[in-house]
Design a protein that fits this description.
about 200 residues
């Protein structure tokens, strides 16, 4: 076996010893901008990372820990939008997003070049997103809220609704009350406040 350099100084992590992600408002930076195609629609993704507080650099750490042949930025810290704005709802959403980003970057003015969004700052709110693990169980991970308020309307203590595995949304407080039921055959039957949304509203 090949000797590992600096063996004595390597940090040891015990099972279950992972960084806790605090939900709510975070100061973030757009670290990367990518163009991609999803279901035939040209889209733009903004990859975010936290720039202060206990979770500073959280998503960069996750990226660095992944093997070289499987590098990807966590979708929980990615906001995407269509680049071809044909529908009014898309136009409204993208204008709101761009206007918010401009409010956090006083010297920046949108010029219809998405690459200029890289390295810009924006405050966002994180909640949770459910996903199914390889073992069939349901787990959660941080998920940035799709809609971003401008600087004057940002609320740091706001935790948005949780995105469930069936693409419905449950108020965070209600979700926390029912967290112990997530392993039921139908874990969503007990929620009274689930809002169904259409695919074109999702990233």
């Amino acid at each position: 076996m090949q000797r590992i350099d600096n063996w004595d100084s390597i940090e040891v992590k015990e099972f279950g010893e992972y960084e806790k992600f605090e939900l709510g408002g975070k100061k973030c930076k757009i670290v990367n901008v990518k163009n991609f195609t999803y279901n035939g629609v040209e889209k733009v993704s903004l990859e975010l990372d936290v720039i202060d507080g206990e979770n500073k650099g959280y998503f960069q750490k996750k990226y660095d820990e992944r093997p070289d042949n499987a590098k990807f930025w966590d979708d929980g810290a990615t906001i995407s939008f269509p680049s071809d704005l044909k529908e009014d709802k898309d136009k409204t959403y993208v204008k709101g997003l761009i206007t918010a980003i401009e409010s956090y970057n006083p010297n920046y003015k949108w010029n219809w070049d998405e690459q200029t969004l890289k390295d810009k700052y924006v405050n966002v709110n994180f909640s949770l997103k459910e996903y199914q693990g390889n073992d069939g169980n349901i787990y959660t991970k941080p998920q940035v809220y799709r809609y971003i308020n401008s600087k004057d309307n940002f609320k740091e203590d706001y935790i948005p609704s949780v995105r469930t595995i069936n693409n419905g949304y449950v108020k965070y407080e209600e979700y926390e009350k029912n967290e112990s039921n997530n392993n039921n055959t139908d874990p969503f039957g007990q929620y009274n406040d689930v809002v169904e949304i259409t695919d074109n509203m999702l990233d």
